[in-house]
Every structure is written in structure tokens, then in C-alpha cells.
Amino acid sequence: MRKSLNGQKPNRKREQAAWAKDDFETLYTQYADQVYRKCLSMTKDSEVAQDFTQEIFIKVFSKLDTFKQQSAPSTWLYSIAHNYCLDQIRISKRMNLQELPEGVELAEEPVVTDELQLQALERLMENLPVEEVTLLRLKYEQGLSVSQIGQQLNLNESAIKMRLKRTRDKLNRLINQRLQ
Fold first, then answer.
1. By mean pLDDT, which of 49-58, 103-112, 159-168 is the weakest?
2. What residue numbers bound the domain in which 21 lies?
3. Of 79, 94, 109, which residue constitutes the final position of a domain?
4. Same domain, 70 and 127
5. DSSP secondary structure letters along 20-88
6. pTM above the 0.70 mark?
7. What is the distance between the alpha carbons of residues 79 and 59, in angstroms, rounded to a whole number?
């Protein structure tokens, strides 16, 4: 069972209460480590992840009034962090383009790395509804159990299992379509 930093079992009402502008310090204390780990998993560089974490919280603070409370604050924050990291990675790749030195040639067969596979998966997930993407992220990126996801989304475990299965099947169909 996941516990918040104050030792209490997290729940949606308590999370949403943490999003008051007057209580931004609580928000930062409660979620900074999770945001940092997400940034680190995407950038593989601790200094960059720290910088991104700070920039994300500055962005979140300035956009608190746009939070509609239709989902848990952690889900909203996670989405901001994920998209921010993707944007920054894309920007850095565009800026690092260099010409190859004379005599250096590209390999004939493209090398598919884990990072490229993850990027391709991210692009495919853009074709899924937000709710389905959220389920996948909660399960596979945040490592929440089916029970924890059910509690967070106020659904029973069998509903979560079925939605996860259908979403995985849908994603597999999209992957197979791309490979054909």
C-alpha cells in the first residue's frame, strides 16, 4: 500500500486539498520525488532530471488555476511532467543535429534502441483515449497495483483488469498495424 510523505494513506480528496495555492509546499513535498523519478527515467541524467523537476513545478504553480479536478492531482501532475520531458527531449534532439565528418557513413541497417521503441510506443499511445493511457501509465510506469489503481479511480479490481486488458489489446493491434 502506497503512503504519502506524511504517513497517511493517500486519497483523492486529500490530494486535491494539497493543490491549494496556499499549500504549494505540501504539493511539492508530496510529489517532487515522483516527478524527479519520472524525469530521470526519461532523461537518464540526474542533473537534467533535477532541472526538469524544478521547471515542471514552476509550470504547475503558474497553472494551478487550470486544474479541473476531473482526475487525481497526481495524474494531472504526472501528465504535465511526462509531456514536459518529451518536449524537452525533442527540442534537445533538434538542436544537436550535426553534419557527419567526411568519411563517416551511416550504418545500412537502422539500429533500434530501447529509447526509439519507447518513443514509437509513445506515438502510438497518442491514438488512445486519455483514460486508457492513464491506466497504462499508472500500472506500468508508476508501478501501482490493480487494487491501488481501483482505489484511485473509484473502480473495482475486475473493471481495472478488464480495462487494462482491452487497452493492451488495442495497443497491440496498433503496433501490429504499424509493422505491416
1. 103-112
2. 1-94
3. 94
4. no
5. SGGGHHHHHHHHHHHHHHHHHHHH--HHHHHHHHHHHHHHHHHTGGG--SSS-HHHHHHHHHHHHHHHH
6. no
7. 12
